[in-house]
Amino acid sequence: MPFRKVENCNQAVRIGKRLRFSLVNIQGNDIVQGNKKLILAYLWQLMRFNMLQLLKHLKSRNHEITDDYILKWANRKVKSSGRTSEMESYKDKTLSNGIFFLELLTAVEPRVVNWNLVTKGITDDEKKLNATYIISVARKLGCSIFLLPEDIMEVHPKMMLVLTASIMYFHLQQSDEEPESTPSSVVVTPDASPALSFNGDDDSFSFMNGEQFSTTIDDAASDTTCASNLEDINSLL
After folding, report:
1. 157-174 and 36-59 are packed helices; what angle lies between their axes, rounded to 10 degrees?
2. pLDDT, tens digit (0-9, with 9 covering 90-100), for 8-25
């Protein structure tokens, strides 16, 4: 029945607000009516919330896991591996060539990237090949990947954050040391050869490119297993 659909969706909105999502002008009826923009805003916050909670579960004792901390961690990892690429922000246009993420993957797992398969990332075709390879390598490592090659090529900031956080989560799972520690010892693919390096500059990152949906939920807390997540949700009902 339509009424029950609306009520269920209203409950989902209420739970989202208690999880401190920014749900401006979002009501249950918007979900029932299939409002794509509002639904995507809600789903993005769910996805980001889940990833940040996974990271906090591993390293909340010493650091507050924020978007800025994830970005700095990625740059430190790449630099510590002897490479020179740098991500200025999550909307840094130089990310479109894929080199930074391939170097980050190499930093957390030295033999995971076969650089003979990597292009310079100049043309759109080369960028797509690199982006597809990034996703393939990340999935092989066990990272949770929610993006498409086009998201990397077009440098969608939200997806850049999730990709970086997924790689960070994989690394932290492999080691009990600090995030800036040495790479794990899992052997995956052929040895890496010297990587290409690129630098770029961009303005600081802001979610949704200035739209009304804010995703500042870093202080929220929940467990990370499926069972505990269900307990958290049930406690909100």
Report:
1. 20
2. 998 988 988 888 888 888
Ranges of each domain in the chain: 1-63, 66-202
Per-residue burial over 22-55, b = 16 or more CB atoms within 10 Å of its CB, e = otherwise? bbeebebebbeeebeebeebbebbebbbbbbbbb
Residue pair 201/35 in contact (Cβ under 8 Å)? The answer is no
| Contact between 13 and 28 (Cβ < 8 Å) | yes
Closest to 181 measured CA to CA, from 39, 77, 93, 95: 77
| Residue 212: per-residue pLDDT | 37
Identify which of 195, 53, 179 has the alpha carbon closest to the alpha carbon of residue 134.
195
For residue range 91-137, list pLDDT tens digits in order. Answer: 999 999 999 999 999 999 999 999 999 999 999 999 999 999 999 99
Domain 66-202: give its CATH superfamily. Answer: Calponin-like domain (1.10.418.10)
C-alpha to C-alpha distance for 184 and 38, rounded to whole angstroms: 40
H helix runs in 88-220, sequence order: 99-108, 124-141, 149-153, 157-174
Q: CA–CA separation, 43 vs 215, rounded Å?
A: 11
Architecture (CATH level 2) of domain 1-63: Orthogonal Bundle (1.10)
